[in-house]
Design brief:
- By secondary structure, the chain is an alpha/beta fold.
- The chain has two domains: 185 residues, inorganic pyrophosphatase (n-terminal core) (Alpha-Beta Complex), CATH 3.90.1640; 119 residues, Roll (Diaminopimelate Epimerase, Chain A, domain 1).
- 38% of the residues lie in helices and 19% in strands.
- It is built from eleven helices and twelve strands.
- The protein has a six-stranded parallel sheet with strand order 3-2-1-4-5-6. Strands 7-8-9-10-12-11 form a six-stranded mixed sheet, sandwiched between helices.
- Helix 2 packs antiparallel against helix 4.
- The protein is globular and about 55 Å long.
- The two termini are 34 Å apart.
- The model has no long low-confidence stretch (mean pLDDT 96).
- The protein binds manganese (II) ion (MN).
- The site of manganese (II) ion has 6 residues, from loops.
């Protein structure tokens, strides 16, 4: 289905700003990179905004990421948010027209224009479908950026949402010139020494609960500092806890500096963890969600979450 109204809004805009969410991942940066490239093809003035000041080095291979600024341009007349499941993920208030392109189940259509498909495996898949439905051509730079989001959000094509459409999209992007070697090097196979060391410590401290169905991982500020790790370094161990045959849900509680706890949940599909995250004003996807707890009591929080996950088993 064509999105005629949105195409017209884009065509009329003079200065478009593409937005990646705070603490951006490959899907958010990849989709923003593809839209940025497309705006250049239209000879538009375009800016790349991300509220986070530090962007992971590994994403530098994505086209135009060197243009990212953490200050929102004052003269832009159209904003496009990519992979931002809530307005808050943008990291600033948007006073101009906004197009929200996303795939999070928790997305509440917060913009004037919304292109949201919670069935899509990545925002880059939503965008790929949008480009194709509206007969907008995809060049090699755009193909690389779209492929990056597809690889990352599908966990290297291993996620349960991977299907024939995902592989068809991957094939088409390859034919369009996507740099799949760079995506493999910087997305699938890339970890810092700090990340490896933290992962080892997390694996050693992992505990199993409820007949081995729930894996619990803790990360303290002391652990983060000891290894020089950053927040995204916690994800590998959390994802891999689901590789254990009995584990259905993996829960990570990470101590923040401000005496709060960051919770991250991963599920094999038998528990909708988005519903658990929502109880704490968090959100995401049924298989992958996050939230913040206003406490620093790790033990209490762990007990409470294990109980809640048990109650949400389907
Ligand atoms: Mn995504």
């Amino acid at each position: 289905m064509k999105n005629l109204e949105i195409i017209e809004v884009i065509n009329k805009a003079k200065h478009v700003v593409v937005i990646a969410h705070i603490n951006p991942d490959a899907d958010s940066l990849g989709s923003a990179s593809a839209v940025y490239t497309y705006m250049l093809k239209l000879h538009k003035k375009v800016s790349f905004f991300c509220a986070s000041k530090k962007i992971d080095e590994k994403f530098k291979f994505l086209p135009w990421t060197e243009k990212i600024k953490s200050v929102f341009p004052s003269d832009a007349d159209l904003a496009i948010s990519l992979d931002c499941g809530t307005h808050a993920r943008i990291g600033t208030d948007i006073a101009i027209d906004l197009i929200n392109i996303d795939h999070h189940q928790s997305n509440d259509a917060y913009a004037r224009f919304n292109v949201v498909n919670p069935k899509a495996i990545s925002t880059t898949q939503v965008l790929f479908d949008f480009f194709k439905a509206n007969d907008l051509s995809i060049n090699a730079k755009m193909a690389t950026a779209l492929y990056a989001g597809l690889v990352d959000d599908s966990s290297n094509f291993l996620s349960l949402k991977t299907d024939e459409n995902v592989f068809a999209m991957a094939q088409e992007l390859c034919l369009l010139g996507a740099d799949i070697k760079a995506c493999s090097r910087y997305i699938s196979r890339y970890i810092s020494l700090a990340g490896y060391r933290l992962k080892g410590a997390m694996m050693l401290s992992m505990s199993l609960h409820q007949d081995g169905e729930i894996a619990l991982l803790h990360v303290s500020q002391e652990m983060m500092q000891r290894y020089g790790a950053v927040a995204s370094d916690c994800e590998a161990a959390l994802e891999e806890a689901l590789h254990l045959p009995t584990v259905k849900v993996a829960l990570l509680l990470r101590e923040n500096k401000n005496r709060t706890l960051k919770g991250s949940l991963r599920s094999d599909g038998s528990v909708d963890v988005n519903r658990v995250a929502k109880l704490f004003d968090g959100g995401g996807h049924p298989h992958s969600s996050g939230f913040t707890l206003d406490t620093s009591d790790m033990q209490n929080a762990s007990d409470r979450l294990i109980q809640l996950i048990k109650e949400h088993r389907q």
